[in-house]
Amino acid sequence: MQPNRPVLGKGAARRRVVIRATVVAMVAVIGLPVGLLAHAHLRRSEPAARERLALPPTAIRLWFSERPELAFTRVRLRGADSSEIPLGAVARMANDAFGLTIPVPATLATGPYTVLWQTAAADGHASRGSFTFEIIAGATPPVAMRDTVAPARDGHALIRVDGTGEEPPRLNATAATRWLEFVAMLAVVGAVVFRLVVLRLAQRARLGALSDDTLVEIVDSVRRLAQSALVLLLIAAVWRFFAEASAVLGPDRSVDRLALRTLLGTNWGLGWLVGVIGVVVSAIGFSMARRVRTQAGWVVAALGAMAIVIAPALTGHASSTPPIALSLALDMLHVLAASAWLGALLTLLFAALPFVRGTRAMSAIGSGPLVASLVRAFHPVALTCGAVVLATGLCATWLRLPAVSSLWESAYGRVLLLKLAFVAIVVMLGALNWRRILPSLGDDRSAARITRTAGAELTIAALVLAVTAVLVSTPPPESAERGASSVGPMHTVAPSP
């Protein structure tokens, strides 16, 4: 056992590096302000913020930067004494999908009023805020509101933003939960790909030298990793569902059965439900694989994994980026390829190699040759999926960015650039493994070396997932342009007293 101690020590050091990167990634995501992540911002209102009216309004009209979901929208009106003024039902404007109108049945008396609003777009990201207006006899003539957004370039429409107070930034636990979901999804999809593709290629390369007992042990190790990730994925999904319900329904409304049914009836709820069904189907498949030990269970798990991969597209930017069908297809293919690539790497590093380099595998055929066969079988999967990730990512970027300058002029573009930087590091580490380490595989020293470099590659991949969790919650530039197109003429407010 003495020769194995340095290897185990290096493995423990590698795991500590991965844990540190995980903690840094979670802290970075949690610390991101929700104000950056909210999507459906209020662009203007009638009455305008701080406007003085000579006549009481018969309706309140709100225009947002994205198409608001009626199920997520609530608008309240309060008088000077904080009493609630009854309002009519929220309805969409007939000629503007980004606008809402709320009737005011009663005739309002003179005095100050506060409008409190909350809404969310189809992707479920909630935003809320409030503004005031006043009804006063002999109100002064209004003056043009000052623009609060820098003029857009390249002929894009100018955005006029209402002087509305949205909630202050807070810790972004929702994005951190998304990150955990991404990691768990990678593990589930990667385990399926590793079992059905990588191990089959390794068996073919070994020409029968991979014994049945060794294969069963590796498959069981892979299945246990996937089932653990599946539990984490289910817990994160349930937590996110209730957090979403609390966010979009508001703190003053209980999350009851009716509220949950309302949430499930939205586009976001449909996407979430598809993901949960995928978790259940995958769990059934892994259970079948444990009892029967045939590929039938893994095929069932693969069907569930496909549903898990589809869910992010239905609850993200792809569901609202035209053309919708192309955008959804690109997003699903992108997530599938990334999950197969990085998830299979995770499975190789944390499920297959720890067993292969143990004493049982070494007594059978030796760890060096078996590590070489597994890594070489993983290599074509990484090359193919990496190419698909890059191609679909470029196409999705082309759909969502109106101009190249959006990469550095918009928050979405800057986060995307950060993701691309981390992806480039992962690709460079993969190229290093391909050109220098892969040809030398076959002994225990090269097996230890590939384990270290794969661990570094996976650590950077964890940061890629952290940035991705932020990216899917950041509004793309066209969201602002759509909001600008719905603004219409500049509205007015009275000067501050």
Mean pLDDT: 74
Distance between the termini: 82 Å
Can you tell me the number of structural domains?
Answer: 2
Apparent shape: elongated
The number of E-state strands comes to 12
Which value, in Å, is the CA radius of gyration?
A: 27 Å
Strand content: 5-15%
Main beta-sheet strand count, sense and barrel state:
6 strands, mixed
Could you state the order of secondary-structure elements as H and E?
A: HHEEEEEEEEEEEHHHHHHHHHHHHE
Uncertain runs are 1-10, 26-38, 139-171, 359-365, 479-497
- SS element count, helices: 14
Oligomer designation: single chain
What order do the helices and strands come in, and which of them pair?
Blueprint: H1 5-30, H2 34-37, E1 42-46, E2 51-53, E3 59-64, E4 74-78, E5 84-85, E6 91-93, E7 96-103, E8 111-120, E9 126-135, E10 143-144, E11 165-166, H3 173-206, H4 212-249, H5 257-264, H6 267-292, H7 295-314, H8 324-356, H9 359-364, H10 367-400, H11 406-409, H12 411-437, H13 444-471, H14 477-485, E12 492-493
Helix pairs in contact: 1-3, 1-13, 3-4, 3-7, 3-8, 3-10, 3-13, 4-6, 4-8, 6-7, 7-8, 8-10, 8-13, 10-13, 12-13
Compact summary:
This protein is 60% helix and 12% strand.
Walkthrough of the structure:
It is a single chain. This protein is α+β, with helices and mostly antiparallel strands and 497 residues long. The protein folds into 2 domains: 340 residues, no CATH class; 125 residues, Immunoglobulin-like (Sandwich), CATH 2.60.40.1220. The chain has 14 helices and 12 strands. Helix 12 packs antiparallel against helix 13. The protein is elongated and about 90 Å long. The N terminus and C terminus are likely disordered.
